[in-house]
Design brief:
Blueprint (H helix, E strand, L loop, with lengths): L10 E5 L4 H12 L3 E6 L2 H4 L9 E6 L5 H15 L4 E4 L15 H29 L2 E5 L2 H5 L5 H21 L5 E7 L5 H6 L4 H10 L9 H13 L8 E4 L12
Parallel strand pairs: 1-2, 1-4, 2-3, 4-5, 5-6, 6-7
Helix pairs in contact: 1-9, 3-4, 4-6
The structure holds nicotinamide-adenine-dinucleotide (NAD).
Nicotinamide-adenine-dinucleotide (NAD) binds next to helix 1 and helix 7.
Length: about 260
Amino acid sequence: MASRLRFQDKVAIVTGGCKGIGRGCVDVFAENGGKVAVLDIDDAVGETMKAEGPGEVFYIHCDMTKEEEIQAAVEATVERYHRVDCLVNNAGWHPPSRTIDGFSADEFRKLLDLNLVGYYLACKYTLPYLRRTQGSIVNISSAAFTLGQGEAVTYVATKGGVVGLTRALATDEGKHGVRVNAISPGAVRTPLLEDCIKDDLQGGLERCKNSTVLRRVAEPRDIGQTCLFLAAEATFTTGADVSCSAGAELGYGLKQ
Ligand code: NAD
């Protein structure tokens, strides 16, 4: 348990919080005394989730591609906790690797709906409450946006959109005292990453590890810690895209 509770009695909404990076964020916020609304579609996991430490977890079934479900989930959070201090936009997907010839426009639109429009809608419906608490938003982008990534044009485009959304919203919301930041993780060991490299799991993990200067793949909690830092302590930081990649971009990407 954390020695000092850094999010005590505060309320966070984490989208896609049942597994992976979102779960890491939920655990870190709850360990620090936070009350966390988890918006996800995995009812089997969501309905059995328990808070780590002194905080609280409240699961709400919410498909982040459905506007009315997003609005209702934000309202349900406020009805229960009467405030929101942080929104973590995280629910997203990485399609299997293909070049541009292999994607249809419709597939791209569907990915945009989850990876970008879902973030936008969660911001839109949560901001009226964040303005009251001078809270903050953390949008999970990806190091793939800064570095580029092979056979992932649609994914990387959505993640660039997330950073654009972050900077533009930070510009508008500063006058309300609301900070808006992004985190760009490198490789994080989650069900999504494991699925992407399932044909050669050990080899894939080894390649991810060797792309960092710390020589390891992130655990979801690593991203959760950065997220809590942005929400709880980074009071003069807004519009930033915080790299959480263990230096994958250093040395022109080449490691010794
Ligand atoms: P994951 O697939 O392991 O977990 C995603 C969670 O989101 C799951 O709980 C899933 O049920 C939920 N989800 C999926 N579709 C949803 C929907 N329509 N509505 C609500 N919830 C939904 O994924 P992850 O690896 O933890 O990735 C989380 C975010 O981090 C994504 O935006 C991803 O692009 C980004 N990211 C991941 C990595 C990585 O290496 N894992 C690296 C950089 C960025």
